[in-house]
Amino acid sequence: SDGSGTNYDNLATVTVKENGLIKTGRINSDGNEVYSEIVCLDNKVFAKKFFDKWGVFDDEDNAIIPLEYDSPINYLGHNLFKVEIKGLYGVKDINNNYVIKPCYLDVLGNKNVPYFIVKLIEYRNERKYPRGKSNKMIVVESYKYRLINIDGSQRNIPERFCGSFNSMNFCGTRFIVVDKHVLSLVNFKLSDNQYSSVFSTGEEKFVFVCNYSKMGVLDQDLNIVLSCEFDKIESWGKGLFLTQKNVINRSGWWNTTVEVEYALFSENGTLCSVGKFSSLEKLKDGRIKVYKDYKYGYIDEYGNLLPDETEILNDEIILYKGFDCIEIRDVNSRIIVP
Question: pTM of this prediction?
Answer without folding.
Answer: 0.78
